[in-house]
Amino acid sequence: MRIVIIDDSGLRATVLEEGLREAGYDDIHVVPPRGAFVARLERMAPDVVLMDLGNPSRDTLEEMLTVSRALARPIAMFVDQSDETMIGAAIDAGVSAYVVDGLRKERVKPVLELAVRRFNAFAKMQSELEEARTALSDRKIIDRAKSILMNQRGLNEQDAYTLLRTSAMNQGKKIVDVAQALITASDLLGGGI
Amino acid sequence: MNTQLRIAFLPLTDAAVLVAARERGFAEEEGIALDLVRTTSWATLRDRLVFGQVHAAHMLAPLAVAVTLGLSQQPAALATPYKLNVNGNMLVMASEFAAALEPDVDRRLADPLGTAHDFASAIGLWRRKPVIGVVHRFSSHAIMLRYWLASAGIDPDKDVVLRVLPPSLTVEAMHAGEIDGFIAGEPWGSAAVEAGLAEAVALGERIWQRGVEKVLAFREGWLDDNPDLVDRLLRVLARSAAWCDDPTNHGALADILSGPHYVDQPADLIARGLTGRVVARRGETAVVDSDFMLFAREATAFPWRSQALWIYSQLVRWNMVAHSPENMAKAGRVFRPDVFRRALAASGVAMPGASMKVEGAVGAPLAVGSHSGDLTLGPDRFFDGKIFDPDQMDSFISGFTDGK
Question: pTM (2 decimals)?
Fold first, then answer.
């Protein structure tokens, strides 16, 4: 079974491709949705096409599926139109699938289920990455506020941090917000750092 | 406790009535919390509606007909009791191509028939088939473009290449040289003009003076099962549409639409379509077309069944669906004037007495029978003077010799 993944996020495509290979599918191609991707896709004659539901190129792809003579049979969306749970899960995960009509349902279903799991895993990974990035930038802000306090008030690092934390607790704010306010104020006052 | 309603839309100026309904508080007044779901392709908007992820969608009128006829992936009976706008499209072409047309843009846009013939000659000079972007096979844009091209003997399936791409990718595709021009809803034509990539070649309003554009589409079953909620929503939209149509609000509306959750384009570009002052070529004075885009006046929102049938006639013309009494009945049923009447009966919104009219027959503003309020219909001519009488479907369709 030839599977084509249309995706311009290198990472998500990799996550999906790896999953499919582990499951024993080995005829997998990744095509970014740019330029003449439709012509490339036609040459590949895939059995299944997987694509992010949010990808704006879906209209272009569907048009090709409608008019193409290179692909012998029409392609329908989703494996089993009556399987509403599956469709719901696919849409929630952001997976859209195009399947060569006539391909047996039981052969395609595991591919779609795997794509759904992998897309969900990728979304989780993205949000964790985002959290990690936020945490990192929070720490940088707090570090800068600490060094302002250390310079201006002659505190050591531990005391500077304690002061920030106490102020945050007293004001019912997050430490990072207090630190940001301090940096802004210090900048306005020309405090340097 | 407000009722939650999820409605999918595409980033386009003609999502205005939905956006204003939320942002100006019209929805809240009726106890509705509008959750507007931004979508980047018509395919995804369609799937979200068909598979019940949203209650309604800002949909291309021909797409609602096509889904109902089973022409676009999963078949589903869709229905629309409310048109979100008429008109608002613009065909733009790369400046080197437009150079073969009438150079005075006012005259070019005022004479679509002459421009279509100039366009036909220009294809010969171009040395290859022009590639024209359309937003969807089943879009008002594609249907109008085909209508306009065919009037000058251009076969849209043979003499040009129609390439489908979503509106928000059109300008990028022009830039990359993947297309030579495109027809789309605003602000994308204006964005291409402003980027110096293209100039206006035709305005939708000059092809069909009151052209059907976006509708609010529902699954038919859901629409019929939730009459109270639908009626409340339609009252919200009627108030919002009146606000959107008022020229004194166009500045504020353009600002709202320009936000990152909506169209995410500069407000001054969006304002061009709203005010009907469209810049056809970068740096030039705007062409004034006060009917460029309508939201409320002349009962714009009323879903004339004859308009669903005109769409059907064009799908048949281009061999997208086989003509049969069953298909015709299905297509006509997509537009639901009965629901419009029920919802807005007591609202003072001017409302036609009939559900069908002869399309293209009104040459000058015409006062017509109305259930409530005074109703004047604006001119609704097709640029070629053709008239569509829905009762004469067979002879209308057989009058088109192309596409067969």
Answer: 0.87
